[in-house]
Design brief:
Protein name: 60S ribosomal protein L7-like 1
Keywords: DNA-binding, Nucleus, Transcription, Transcription regulation
Domain TF-B3: 27-107, 194-246
Largest sheet: 7 strands, mixed
Helix content: 10-25%
Subcellular location: Nucleus
Structural class: alpha+beta
CATH superfamily of the largest domain: DNA-binding pseudobarrel domain
CATH architecture of the largest domain: Beta Barrel
Radius of gyration: 18 Å
Number of domains: 2
CATH topology of the largest domain: At1g16640 B3 domain
Pfam families: B3
């Protein structure tokens, strides 16, 4: 389940660990049965795996009596992150289907590529694997195939720096779904029936929401650890429908 709260602050986020072995984990990943028993009640059928470099991948959760699996989309996650035998993966569940993932290699350290947003040329290598919005996943006991939402989206766990300085949009998301041209935007964030005008700047392969962001944060009473999902709506201008998990 999502984080438990004490006096308005998260008590803890549920965590599990897996060691990567290609022969058993390359095509799918089994979630620990004990973790599922304690925390799986509110885990949806479609989840997001997010690395510290702000790149994210959607995976389908196959829920069977014999175990729960990350399945649809898992291969893309493995290939894009170039997982190797004996890599240790730490999954922290932040609710709303969002898992923050940390990977430690055999040296005991996290690879640099996991910590920093990719350069333009590295991003081009990711594009072959990521953001396939027409996947399907297998649903629970009957194993029925259900379509995954086709709306492009990314999810952010808010940090103090994000609230104060502005939101960075993952460059791979922007290049895949909006434009690679360098230009300034003046567009909108929507929550329910309200909207906020913001300025999105794209320069040197960095995309940020700055002007208007602080007003959006203040009027929506956003705080550190809130989880925001940004869904790109089908308009000529850039409009994001924002869902907030507190």
């Amino acid at each position: 389940m999502a984080a438990r709260y004490l006096n308005g602050l998260p008590e803890y986020f549920p965590v599990f660990c897996r060691i990567f072995y290609p022969e058993s984990c390359e095509d799918r990943l089994l979630l620990p049965p004990g973790w599922v028993a304690q925390n799986g009640e509110q885990v949806p059928n479609e989840c997001t795996l997010k690395m510290l470099n702000c790149l994210s991948w959607r995976v389908g959760v196959t829920k069977l009596v014999r175990g729960w699996l990350f399945e649809t989309g898992w291969v893309q996650f493995v290939q894009s992150n170039r997982l190797h035998r004996h890599d240790v993966l730490i999954f922290t569940y932040h609710g709303s289907g969002v898992f923050m993932v940390k990977r430690f290699d055999t040296s005991g350290c996290m690879p640099d590529r996991d910590l920093h947003a990719p350069t333009y040329f590295e991003t081009r290598q990711y594009l072959a694997h990521d953001f396939d919005y027409e996947d399907s996943y297998t649903d629970s006991s009957e194993g029925a195939a259900t379509g995954v939402s086709s709306i492009p989206a990314f999810t952010v766990v808010l940090l103090a720096s994000t609230i104060e300085m502005g939101l960075s949009i993952p460059i791979i998301f922007w290049m895949t779904n909006v434009t690679s041209e360098e230009r300034n935007w003046r567009d909108a964030l929507l929550v329910g029936d309200r909207s906020w005008t913001v300025k999105i700047t794209s320069k040197d392969y960095e995309v940020q929401i700055r002007r208007g962001w602080r007003t959006f944060v203040s009027e929506n009473q956003l705080v550190v650890e809130n989880i925001c999902k940004f869904e790109l709506l089908p308009y000529d201008e850039v409009r994001f429908m924002v869902s907030i998990e507190r």
